[in-house]
Design brief:
Layout lengths: L7 E5 L8 H14 L7 E3 L11 H4 L5 E3 L4 H4 L10 H4 L4 H15 L3 E5 L1 H10 L6 E4 L12 H13 L2 E4 L2 H11 L7 E3 L20 E5 L10 H7 L7 E5 L12 H11 L3 E5 L3 H9 L3 E4 L13 H8 L4 E3 L3 H7 L10 H11 L3 H16 L3 H13 L19 E7 L6 H8 L4 E7 L8 H10 L2 E5 L3 H9 L5 E5 L20 E4 L2 H10 L8 E3 L6 H4 L10 E5 L8 H14 L4 E5 L7 H4 L2 H16 L6 E4 L4 H4 L5 E4 L8 H8 L3 E5 L4 H4 L5 E2 L2 H12 L3 H19 L1 H19 L1
Parallel strand pairs: 1-2, 1-4, 2-3, 4-5, 5-6, 6-7, 8-9, 8-11, 9-10, 11-12, 13-14, 13-15, 15-16, 16-17, 17-18, 19-20, 19-22, 20-21, 22-23, 23-24
Helix pairs in contact: 1-16, 5-6, 6-7, 9-14, 12-15, 17-30, 22-28, 26-29, 29-30
C-alpha cells in the first residue's frame, strides 16, 4: 500500500436496489470519501444489482471499488468461505458478509472498516479481530434507555470496547451513548453527520418560483403516508402541486392493504404527481424545481435523535421544509422556526404560510440552508479526513494476521426444539468467551446430516438439548477433543432413544430437577451416575418483575393444559369451589386448546377427557368466568394473575410456577413427584380443599402482608433459578469440562 493512501472497506446491511434514507447514506459516505484522491474506498454489496439508480452514483468515481459477490470477478478471487448459500438466496446475512470481509482483509489488508447495522456490528465485535479497525455506525439500536435490555447493554459494551470508533449521526446520540456506557470523556465516539451532494450555484434565491411541494422517500405509517397526501387534498388550491418520489412501502406497524391504500390516495388526489423510483440525480433535479420540502413524521418519532438526510437535501437547494416540532429540530433550526407542524391542521396551515408569507418562507429557507451547507460532501470530507487518516497507523493488536478471530470456545446447540435453551444460547452468544451456532433438527430423529457434520467439525462443545436422536447421533460422531453435554427432559422417558446413546462419549448429563433425575433413573438404570449433574431451569426474573394490575386478587392462572396429565379437571374443581365462595374469581387458561395438537386429539382417551371437562364447564353458571387465552407474551399476562396453578399428575420442573412466582404470584402446587424439592412446601396441596384453602387464606390476609409474602416468593426464585445464576453455572461447567480434556 502507498503510505499516504487510505484503503477503507464499506459495508452496510442495506439493499441498494431500494431507494430510502438508509441506502442514500451508503451512497453518500462513498461519494464523500471519493472527494479525496488519497482515499480509495471499497464497497461490498448486500444484494445483486437489480436496478442501478443508486449504484451508478458512485460507479463514476475511479477511486471506488465495487465488490459484487455474485459476479464472475468475485468468484475468481477464490475466497475460502464458510457459507456460500448467498449464491442461491441472493442476499448476504451478517454472518456471511463478515466472513467475506475477513477473507478479503487477509488478501488486501484494509486500513479500516466502516459498517452499518446492529446485527452486523455484533457479529464483528464478538468474533473478529478486525473489529479493532472498525468504525461501527449504529441507527437501529434502541434510543430510549428503558428499551435497552441486558443483552443490548452487553452488546453495545462489546461493540464499543472492541471497535475503533462508534460513529453516530448527531451530538445528541453521542451524549446518549456516553451516558449509557458511562463514558466521561470523548472516548471512541465520532460525530458522523448526514451527508448531501455538493451544490454551489452562482446565486441562490430563497423564493417560491413554482408553487410546488416535494416529498422523496419511503412510504410508512410513521412517515405520515398517506396522511400527508390526504391532508394536501384538503388544501384545495389549484395552483399548488405536490411531487411525490418513491416506491418503497414499509408497512410497519402493520396496516391492512397498506400499499394499496397509499397508492390509491397518490393516484386519486388532484395535483399530486407521483414519480416512483428515480436516480439520486433525478431526485435532486426535482428538488431544485420545487419550493417546499416535506419531512412530517408521526409523533412517536419526536424523541428520535437522528436528523433526516432528506431535510438537508431540500435545504441545500434553498428550500424550506415542513418538519415536526421536537427537541432535535428546535436545537438545530431554532424554536421560532416558522414551519413546524405536529398535526394535520398545522400541516395544512404551514403549506398556506409557506406560499403566502414571503418573510416566513425566507426565514425558514435560510435556517435549513445554514444547517445543510455544513453537510455537503466536500465539507464533510474536510472534517473527517484527519480522523480517517489516523487509521493508517494500524493498531498493534491487529498486526498479526494469524489472530483473525477472538480465541473463543465454540459451542454448538443441537436439538429439534431449542425454546427451553434460548436463554442459554443468548448468554453464550453474547459472551466474549464463547461463539455459538445451532443445529436445529426437524424432528426427534430427523436432520440434515451434511449440515450436522459441518457443524460437528466446527464445534469445541456440543450441547444436545434433549436425549433423543440428536444425542444418539452426536454421541456416535463426536471427536476426542470435543465435549458432549446432554440435557434430558421428561419427554425422553417414553422413547427408545436413551439406550442408543453412546454414553461413554457423553461428558455430562444434565437434569433440571432432582425429581426428574430419580424418575429417569428408575426407567433407564444404565445412566452414568458419575456424569449426572443437576442444573435448574432458567427464569428471566428481571423481565417478569412488573407491577401487578389492580384488582388481581381473584384471578387464577393456569399455563398449559395439554396433555391430560396437566389436569385441567382439577384446576376447574379448585376454581368451582372458590367461585361458589365468591363469584369474583376468574380462571385464566393460557395456551393452545388440545384440538390444536393432532397427535393428542387423535387419541380417543385424551379427546374424551377434554370433552368431558369442557361439557362440565359449559353446563355451569361460572362458564363465562373460565377464560381460554392463546399463547403470547407471558410477562404481561402474569401481571393480572394472583395465583398460578400447577395441578399436574407429574412435572419435571414446571417453569410456569417459577415464572409466576418471579412475577409476584402465589403458587398452588399439587404434590407431584419432586415439587417439594423445588418450591416452598406451604404452597403444595394433596387434595382440592387444601388448594382452595391456600388461596382463600391468602386473600384474607392484610394487603401489606400479601405484598411482603409476594416479594419473598420473588426473592425465592431469584436466589435459586435466576437466568444469570444458572447461566454462570453452565459457563463454569463448560470451561471445567474443556479443561479436563487438556
Amino acid at each position: 500500500m502507498t503510505a499516504n493512501i487510505l484503503k477503507p472497506f464499506i459495508y452496510a446491511d442495506i439493499d441498494l436496489n431500494i431507494i430510502d434514507g438508509s441506502a442514500i447514506w451508503v451512497t453518500s459516505i462513498l461519494e464523500t470519501m471519493a472527494q479525496d484522491h488519497e482515499i480509495e474506498p471499497t464497497i461490498l454489496l448486500k444484494r445483486p444489482v437489480i436496478r442501478d439508480l443508486l449504484v451508478k452514483s458512485f460507479q463514476k468515481y475511479p477511486n471506488v471499488t465495487i465488490l459484487n459477490p455474485w459476479s464472475k470477478e468475485f468468484k475468481e478471487l477464490g475466497l475460502n468461505l464458510e457459507d456460500d448459500s448467498f449464491l442461491k438466496t441472493k442476499r448476504l446475512t451478517p454472518e456471511q458478509a463478515t466472513n467475506i470481509m475477513d477473507e478479503l482483509d487477509q488478501m488486501n489488508r484494509y486500513h479500516m472498516f466502516l459498517v452499518r447495522g446492529y446485527q452486523l456490528a455484533k457479529e464483528i465485535a464478538y468474533n473478529y479481530v478486525f473489529s479493532k479497525r472498525t468504525w461501527f455506525y449504529l441507527t437501529d439500536f434502541p434510543q430510549k434507555k428503558e428499551k435497552v435490555t441486558e443483552e443490548d447493554y452487553r452488546n453495545i459494551t462489546t461493540i464499543y470496547e472492541n471497535g475503533a470508533r462508534l460513529a453516530l449521526q448527531t451530538p445528541v446520540l453521542i451524549e446518549y451513548f456516553k451516558d449509557l456506557l458511562n463514558v466521561k470523556d470523548e472516548g471512541k465516539f465520532i460525530y458522523l453527520p448526514p451527508m448531501v451532494p455538493n451544490y454551489e450555484p452562482e446565486t441562490r434565491q430563497f423564493t417560491n418560483k413554482h408553487n410546488q411541494i416535494i416529498y422523496a422517500g419511503k412510504f410508512a405509517p410513521f412517515w405520515k403516508a398517506p396522511e400527508m397526501f390526504e391532508a394536501f387534498g384538503k388544501v384545495k388550491d389549484p395552483n399548488i402541486k405536490f411531487v411525490v418520489i418513491g416506491d418503497k412501502f414499509h408497512n410497519y406497524p402493520p396496516t391492512e392493504n397498506y400499499s394499496d391504500r397509499v397508492s390509491q390516495v397518490l393516484e386519486s388526489t388532484k395535483n399530486i404527481i407521483w414519480k416512483k423510483g428515480l436516480s439520486r440525480a433525478e431526485v435532486q433535479e426535482y428538488i431544485q424545481n420545487s419550493d417546499l420540502g416535506v419531512s412530517w413524521r408521526h409523533e412517536v418519532l419526536d424523541e428520535s435523535k437522528e436528523l433526516s438526510t432528506k431535510v438537508l437535501e431540500y435545504g441545500l437547494y434553498g428550500k424550506p421544509v415542513i418538519i415536526n416540532r421536537n427537541p432535535l429540530h428546535e436545537e438545530l433550526f431554532g424554536a421560532d422556526y416558522p414551519l413546524f407542524a405536529n398535526s394535520e391542521e398545522e400541516f395544512i396551515e404551514k403549506i398556506r404560510v409557506a406560499f403566502s408569507d414571503e418573510e416566513k418562507y425566507l426565514l425558514a429557507a435560510q435556517r435549513v440552508f445554514s444547517v445543510s451547507e455544513k453537510h455537503m460532501f466536500a465539507n464533510i470530507i474536510k472534517y473527517l479526513k484527519p480522523m480517517l487518516m489516523e487509521m493508517i497507523e494500524i493498531s498493534p493488536e491487529t498486526e498479526n494476521m494469524t489472530e483473525r478471530r477472538y480465541n473463543k470456545i465454540k459451542v454448538l446447540f443441537a436439538g429439534h426444539d431449542l425454546k427451553f435453551a434460548k436463554m442459554l444460547i443468548n448468554h453464550f452468544g453474547t459472551s466474549m468467551d464463547f461463539q455459538v451456532k445451532e443445529d436445529v433438527w426437524k424432528g426427534h430423529n430427523t436432520h440434515d446430516e451434511k449440515q450436522s457434520k459441518k457443524l460437528l467439525e466446527w464445534a469445541d462443545v456440543i450441547i444436545a438439548e434433549w436425549g433423543l436422536g440428536n444425542a444418539v447421533w452426536y454421541s456416535k460422531h463426536k471427536k476426542k477433543h470435543q465435549v458432549l453435554i446432554v440435557r434430558m427432559h421428561l419427554q425422553e422417558k417414553n422413547t427408545a432413544h436413551p439406550p442408543k446413546i453412546t454414553w461413554s462419549n457423553v461428558d455430562q448429563l444434565i437434569f433440571i430437577a432432582p425429581g426428574l433425575r430419580k424418575e429417569m433413573e428408575e426407567v433407564f438404570d444404565f445412566l452414568p451416575q458419575e456424569k449426572i449433574r443437576i442444573i435448574y431451569n432458567l427464569v428471566d426474573t428481571k423481565a417478569l418483575n412488573k407491577p401487578k394490575l389492580e384488582d388481581n386478587q381473584f384471578n387464577i392462572g393456569l399455563m398449559g393444559i395439554s396433555p391430560a396429565r396437566k389436569r385441567l379437571d382439577i384446576a376447574v374443581d379448585i376454581f368451582e369451589k372458590l367461585w361458589k365462595m365468591d363469584n369474583r374469581y376468574t380462571l385464566y387458561v393460557k395456551g393452545h386448546l388440545p384440538n390444536k395438537y393432532a397427535w393428542l386429539w387423535n387419541r380417543e382417551d385424551e379427546r374424551q377427557y377434554y370433552e368431558q371437562v369442557f361439557r362440565k364447564i359449559n353446563s355451569r353458571p361460572y362458564r363465562d368466568s373460565v377464560i381460554f387465552e392463546g399463547w403470547g407474551e407471558v410477562s404481561e399476562w402474569y401481571r393480572k394473575i394472583r395465583f398460578v396453578l400447577s395441578p399436574s399428575d407429574f412435572e419435571s420442573f414446571h417453569l410456569a410456577v417459577a415464572e409466576g412466582m418471579a412475577s409476584g404470584c402465589f403458587p398452588v402446587i399439587r404434590d407431584w413427584h419432586g415439587a417439594s424439592e423445588l418450591y416452598p412446601n406451604e404452597y403444595i396441596f394433596h387434595e382440592v380443599d387444601e388448594a382452595v384453602n391456600i388461596i382463600h387464606q391468602t386473600n384474607n390476609k392484610p394487603h401489606y402482608e400479601v405484598e411482603e409474602v409476594s416479594e419473598s416468593l420473588r426473592t425465592f426464585i431469584q436466589n435459586r433459578y435466576d437466568k444469570n445464576l444458572i447461566c454462570s453455572q453452565w459457563e463454569e461447567m463448560v470451561i471445567e469440562l474443556r479443561s479436563n480434556l487438556k
